[in-house]
Amino acid sequence: MSVSESAAPAVVALGEVKAAIAAACREARRDPATVTLVAVSKTFATDMIAPVIAAGQSVFGENRVQEARAKWAPLRALHPGLELHMIGPLQSNKARDAVELFDVIHSLDRMSLAAELAKAVAKSGGRRCPRLLVEVNTGAEPQKAGVLATDVDAFLAAVRDRHGLVVEGLMCIPPVDEAPAPHFALTAKIAARNGLKTLSMGMSDDFAEAIRFGATHVRVGTAIFGARPAKAPGN
Asked: Which of 130, 175, 200, 207 could cysteine-pair with 217, CB 3.0–4.6 Å?
């Protein structure tokens, strides 16, 4: 099977996901233009991603700095208008690389990371200043990254006051064994009281519901690219 043939299902699936987003927006009485599809390309090779870019997708999400750098340097050289989002946990020692590589970071979740991001932005002379989202651990899951819902307000204030960082929104990943709606509603409520407009909520199985609760960014991977290949090496 040729590369174009193996990638064809992803192009078809991309169209289906976009149609589903539009339908969810109609049901929620929202303009589809207010929802950004982040195609989660983590673990997929460039030969799978390139046809999706050719089909018009320009916003992509990755989980690991090292993998993203290797894949996206050549793709961005060919397609300079692409936008890259960091959606996975970010190690503090990779903050400088992340600032150089990503346009949006969804996973700010601790003060030590905020400090390193602020340093990296300063070292770039303001040339690089990714948009930042705070990850909220809405289910208080001990194995999961994110700021507890009860601590988000104080965390946002501290990030602003101590490090001068501007946070534009929140991200959440509901527990896999719970209905996502209450978690989306909680995240939206926290964002509203803090004047934040960006909500990164919803993945392949629940993005339509996330749109109903105000998601501005939905992170969809499997529904576009299919089952993931073996996990890539570490961050």
From this structure: 200
Which residue type, as a one-letter code, is found at position 89? P
Rounded distance between C-alpha atoms, residue 224 and residue 7, angstroms: 10
Distance CA 180, CA 196 (A): 20
Cα–Cα–Cα angle for 6, 7, 8, nearest 5°? 95
Looking up tokens 């174009």 gives 4
Describe the crossing of helices 65-78 and 46-54 by its angle, rounded to 10 degrees: 40
Structural tokens at position 102: 């990503």
Write out the two tokens for 90. Answer: 């970010």
What is the block-wise mean pLDDT of the chain (235 residues), using blocks of 10 residues? 64 97 98 98 93 97 95 93 96 96 98 97 91 98 96 98 96 96 98 98 97 98 86 47
Q: Does domain 3-225 have CATH number 3.40.50.1980?
A: no
Backbone φ, ψ for residue 233 (5° rounding): -60, 170
Domain positions in the chain are 3-225
